[in-house]
């Protein structure tokens, strides 16, 4: 594709062409003066002008015209020398200005690290691409590329490695592109590709697959192998949008969808994706005032002691009811809260409320109740996390031994060293630690020992098919045996049928929870359940 470099209107005469013509004009003038001088010399010789000039000077010797003539000749020669010298200096100045302008142009429109066209030039070229193809309506596309987990690589290996990775990454992508396509770097780890005609949908998919496949081989950075992947969003012109801004927005939306699907994928834009993006934006905006507007509530699901078949505790479950959106599930708004940086504020609110509520139940005569609260990985690695937990306990006057914090395997293993330190400090406060959704992650015995946890919670996915699935029965039995060998308590989650409960009772599992016993309850209904002193048999 051929594009202008800037958004300015094209000028009739290009600067470089003008300077070239200027040099030619000067040369022609010098040649003209030389030829004219030769012609005048020939005429003077033919009419014997020199002799006549001598006679003229001798005749008017009184006026000393010879000196005047000599002065005029010397002045003419000096004037010619000055003109030639000034023109040479002007020529040098022009060349320096051309060089300076080219340098400024490169700084303005090209990325200094990778040498690729930058965001400013991308916008310009995309505008030209759209306006050029609007008349013909030929198929084209924009790819929006994001390098997966680049921040982790940058933070763990240093910015020098990160810069080198970006350079090698851009070089590898350029090899895969056709001559019709242009690669741009528009921000830190984000790139775009304008795919020009001729192309079809199959060709666009093939190119996206080639780009993703090209990252299967490792990058060599300082003799170390580094593996990475990328997420790609595809917006097709003119199907998805017919403006530059619209195409970029569609490609960006598709890229985030690809990233949420598990990274290392590409995704085409669709109207459904646009609806999802708009809903996500609305949820993000509403979340920011949810605490202030008191839209959050906690429900409590009973945890049953299998041996006594009585309620031994509760798991606090966050609920959000917005006036406009209605009831929004935690599986929807929790990931968004993590993404926009609200999870610490929301998690801290949950912790304070849960500790306060458990203390109220203790004061009502149920002083044995344990409160389980889910913690996110972002809360765990927060420097102020220990203070937050301590403040919640102090303000509610709840003893640490009646608080159990649930953390997932992925949250712990993503920051293992920090997790070990934080858990050690929590244990000193008397707080219990449970490993939630056990069996769905790495399930390594070594980190179970290092982390000094108190309880394993068997993930619901293993319970769902019991007793019909032999594999799930074997897996569940193995998890319970492992916990017993490590002197850990075990809770089975997601008990929904009598058969599942009977199976769990037949093992050495300590506790269970699920719809078979009770759905999550409001604080008042949970208190009513306690007052009835139920026995689940």
UniProtKB/TrEMBL annotation:
All copies of the GGDEF domain together span 138-271
Fetch the Pfam families from UniProt.
EAL, GGDEF
Superkingdom in the source lineage: Bacteria
Q: Which InterPro entries match?
A: Biofilm_reg_signaling, EAL_dom, EAL_sf, GGDEF_dom, Nucleotide_cyclase, Rev_trsase/Diguanyl_cyclase
Keyword field: Membrane, Transmembrane, Transmembrane helix
Residues crossing the lipid bilayer are 30-48, 68-87
* The protein's name: GGDEF domain protein
Checking SMART domains in the record gives:
EAL (SM00052), GGDEF (SM00267)
- Which residues belong to any copy of the EAL domain? 280-534
Which PROSITE patterns has this protein been placed in? Answer: EAL, GGDEF
